[in-house]
User: What shape does this take?
Amino acid sequence: MTSVLFVCLGNICRSPMAEAVLGHLISSRADTDAWRIDSAGTGAWHVGSEPHASTVAVCQRRGVPIRHRGRQLTGSDFTRFDHVLAMDKQNLHDLALVRPAEATARIALIGSFDPLGESEVPDPYHSRDTAAYEAVFEQLERCCRAFLASLR
Ligand code: 4NP
Assistant: This one.
């Protein structure tokens, strides 16, 4: 079993999109059942919420199923997941603040896998432009492919 938790601030834009993108990449593999993929936010504002309408729209346009309800990161996530992948450096900072001593997860920026070297995934939440969400999708897709390749 390989388990991956994506983390952003609100858990309605970037991390549920990353969860959907990696899930879709895994869905065409023979070992689909050997994966557990989830997402969470460092903040609690959107607990129980569906992903942002623009995140849902871009996933639908790309044929990527998305299903998630917002939840806040918990201390047990650091032992329940093998990989905790953050979107930006602020997320990494916030993860370090709540990381328990017994944490076993490998913590990294998903952007550290980006073959184009964009280390942070910018927050599209305050953008009215759906192009921002399209750009996040493309960045996450190439990062997730590279992340999978790194595990081989
Ligand atoms: P996300 O975007 O971290 O990619 O889900 C945000 C969503 C909501 C808020 C901030 C960022 N917010 O402040 O409510």
Notes: The first helix runs from residue 14 to 27. Residues 8-14, 45, 123, 125 surround 4-nitrophenyl phosphate (CB under 6 Å). The beta strands are 2-8, 35-41, 83-86, 106-109. The chain has one domain: 2-150.
